Amino acid sequence: MIFWVRRRFCLLIIAVNLVCLNTFLCSARAEISKGGNEKKKINFDYEPLTNTWDYQDLKENIKDLTPEPKIKLDELLQKYEISTSYILPKFSNETDNIKQISQSNNINGNIPKKSLNFPQKTPAKKNDFLLADEPLPPSQQGIYWSPARPDSHAPIAVMGEHIHSEGEIMVSYRYMLMEMEGSRVGTDDISDEKILEQFPITPTRMTMQMHMFGMMYGITNNLTLMAMLPYVVKDMDHLTRTNRRFNTDSEGIGDIKVTGLYQILNENRQRIHLNTGISFPTGSIEARDTTPAGPDQLLPYPMQLGSGTLDLHPGITYLGQSDDWSWGTQIIGTLRLGENSNSYKFGDEIMLTAWGAKKWSDWASTSLRIKGRNWGNISGKDSRLNPNLIPTADPTRRGGTQIDIGFGLNLFVPEGDLRTGRLAIEFELPIYRALQGPQLETDWQLTAGLQFSF
Ligand SMILES: [Cu+2]
């Protein structure tokens, strides 16, 4: 029953993604056909009052255009709108302050980039595009969601929650440590002794570490590609009915995940994008170690490094900002496609999270987050594992629901040699755990990460 609810949620997210994508493509198609008729109409925002430019400068710079361009000053927004039948030339009086900016939101037609003379507080950079981690032009501040803030990235354990500008690359490294000790059935703790009345062996403790290497690349201003390579290290302690203790380990590459992040809204300091991820079965489902049964024994399901299946990860992310605060929410499903080569499939999963963050300065913010997760049992089974020996080998004792609270700190380098560098940490504690058990319970999780854009 819950399985179907979860599966329907995942399918619903996929359906919403497809509808949104189609809506977007419709407007893009309309935009293109409109561009065909009225090709060179250009509107762009221009910050007129706080720098060397004024209306005369602007007119002077586009006077070569024929027919006469129409320049309209919008007093309310304090910006100029220029309508012309010709593509604006690069402005002639190039100085150190010249900066290429791309303003896809304000362009009708197919001109991707234009030059504007722009006063800068910091020296000119080598980049000729607007970095996602760079401040917005003054004309866009307070109108669009700003990327150059410590809290413009979500708490570090959230992934695929921001997009990048065209051509921008971000590399990241995350370290995750998860500690599990003791078991529960439903919402109640169960002692190891009690479990040993039913099973000859029980797990008593497990730690999972993950080194996650990530890369993001802005294909366009609305589409970012993200790739994640995890390296997983697992360690489990056991107790037998004969009071013997033993430990098993497994480590290696997990499932590589590739996600497309497609922005469908960027206005009023808010953003929405669709997450369309797929993970590949690169993680082993043949992890082995020495157990009391002998050397080189196949380890049970939670000690394996991958799912063995192709998995879809559809999702939707929303972000919002005010001057000192920011917030966001994300829903991500995990939909397993088919059975793996060992004749089973991990349960589907649905994850919903929401957070709020306070920006204390240009370089520091703190966050509070809630995360709910519901995941299903394994269907099918690996016939080499005996489900009567240990709870971790039983495919019907794997599902669960958990709600966590996360406390996060984000640090951002706004200028200098390490500009756009980020360091962040988040600590998660459970407030609700219901497990189809006996199953090991997660007590806390720590995530720390470094990110750098260029
Ligand atoms: Cu990024």
End-to-end C-alpha gap: 47 Å
Topology pattern, helix = H, strand = E: HHEEEEEEHEEEEEEEEEEEEEEE
Helix content: 10-25%
Strand order of the largest sheet: 5-7-8-10-11-14-15-17-18-20-21
Task: Return Rg in Å.
Answer: 26 Å
Bound molecules: copper (II) ion
Percentage beta strand = over 45%
Number of separate domains? 2
CATH architecture term of the largest domain: Beta Barrel
CATH class of the largest domain: Mainly Beta
CATH H-level name of the largest domain... which superfamily?
monomeric porin ompg
Uncertain ranges: 31-54, 84-132
What is the global morphology? elongated
Number of strands: 21
Q: Give the count of helical stretches.
A: 3
Which structural class fits the helix and strand makeup?
mainly beta
Question: What number is the mean pLDDT?
Answer: 80
